[in-house]
Amino acid sequence: MARYQYNNTVRDANGVVVNGATVTVTLTTSGAAATLYAAKTGGTATNVFTTNSSGYFEFFCDVSDHAASVFFDLAIAGPSTLGLLSQTFTNISFYRA
User: Fold this and answer.
1) Is the pLDDT score of 23 beyond 90?
2) 21, exposed or middle or buried, with CB in 10 Å at 0-12, 13-18, 19+?
3) Cβ-proximal residues to 35 (8 Å cutoff; 6+ apart), any chain
4) What is the pLDDT of residues 31-42, one digit of tens each?
5) Is the pLDDT of residue 89 over 70?
6) Less Cβ crowding at N or C end of the chain, within 10 Å?
7) What is the signed CA dihedral for 12, 15, 18, 24, rounded to 10 degrees?
């Protein structure tokens, strides 16, 4: 089955990339954990990802797990040592037309 990629970079209020931020993905309608993957093929499903030293994160959504009509929420929490406030982005679609 096809997997659609989503990627982004986490930055603090000053535009500095955040290493080690946690990105948790849930379904908008129910709040249930989304079934996502760290790779384009294979791998174990998860819904929690961590940014790298460039603040970058990515994951893949398989069409066999979630229909194209499903929207997702991303909750981002930075390392407590940075004092980064948690932020949630809602109603995100990973599928491209």
Assistant:
1) yes
2) buried
3) 45, 47, 61, 62, 65, 66
4) 999 999 999 999
5) yes
6) C
7) 60
Alpha-carbon distance of 28 to 34, in angstroms, equals 9
Q: What does the pLDDT read at residue 80?
A: 65
Residue 82, phi then psi, degrees to nearest 5: -90, -15
Contact 94, 72 (CB under 8 A): yes
Contact between residue 9 and residue 54 where contact means Cβ atoms under 8 Å apart: yes
Coil, strand or helix at 80: helix
Q: How confident is the model at residue 65 (pLDDT cuts 50, 70, 90)?
A: very high
Q: Say which DSSP state 32 is in.
A: P
At residue 34, the 3 state secondary structure works out as coil
